[in-house]
């Protein structure tokens, strides 16, 4: 059992779903999973989360359809320790380019959409954190409060908070609109 397969399994088991949007998958990695890293780095970065998603799709562990990913294997067949945390070895496993052996990659339809470099939500969180001086966890907490209070999508809440702290949110409007309309 590869560490990548265990990581994919943990994401779906924690979310309690069999189908996740790409954004949900990346956000679960980015916000909910922590590295089992003695150096104390702890959190998976957004770029790493994106690489994990792309590697899982390349290796045939995830199937992409209409912006949603689902595992291609039976999640119950994977034994994962209760408090599993991926290690930095996962990044070595997927490699910088994340290339997988050809035999491990099932045939996939040509023209399949490639995962985006970084979801707009993650970029907004980074910009808000940089402009406000808050850490990312505080930014997400504030976004969640706005989501609950105003019953809006997380991306919209991030725009509102970003505007309040002085982020130029105009450059994100179209991407957020597209993301919200895809839901």
In short:
The chain has 183 residues and is mainly α. The protein is 51% helix and 5% strand. The model is unreliable at 96-116 (pLDDT under 50).
How would you sum up this structure, described in words?
The protein is mainly α and 183 residues long. It has 2 domains: 3-104, Arc Repressor Mutant, subunit A (Orthogonal Bundle); 120-182, no CATH class. The chain has 8 helices and 3 strands, in the order αβααββααααα. A 3-stranded antiparallel beta sheet has the order 1-3-2. The longest helix is centred in the C-terminal third of the chain and has 15 residues, at 136-150. It is globular, with a radius of gyration of 17 Å. The two termini are 33 Å apart. 30% of the residues are buried.
Write the layout of secondary structure elements.
Blueprint: H1 3-15, E1 20-21, H2 22-32, H3 46-58, E2 62-65, E3 68-71, H4 89-94, H5 120-132, H6 136-150, H7 154-165, H8 173-182
Helix pairs in contact: 2-3, 5-6, 5-7, 6-7
């Amino acid at each position: 059992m590869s560490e990548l397969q265990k990581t994919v399994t943990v994401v779906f088991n924690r979310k309690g779903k069999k189908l996740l949007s790409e954004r949900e998958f990346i956000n679960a990695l980015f916000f909910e999973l922590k590295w089992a890293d003695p150096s104390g780095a702890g959190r998976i970065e957004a770029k790493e989360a994106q690489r994990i998603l792309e590697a899982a799709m390349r290796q045939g562990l995830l199937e992409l359809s209409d912006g949603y990913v689902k595992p291609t294997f039976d999640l119950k067949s994977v034994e994962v320790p209760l408090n599993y945390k991926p290690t930095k070895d996962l990044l070595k496993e997927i490699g910088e380019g994340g290339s997988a052996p050809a035999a491990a990659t099932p045939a996939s339809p040509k023209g399949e959409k490639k995962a985006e470099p970084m979801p707009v939500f993650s970029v907004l969180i980074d910009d808000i954190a940089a402009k406000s001086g808050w850490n990312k966890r505080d930014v997400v907490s504030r976004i969640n409060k706005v989501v609950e209070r105003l019953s809006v999508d997380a991306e919209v809440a991030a725009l509102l908070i970003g505007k309040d702290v002085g982020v130029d949110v105009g450059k994100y409007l179209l991407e957020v609109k597209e993301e919200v309309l895809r839901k």
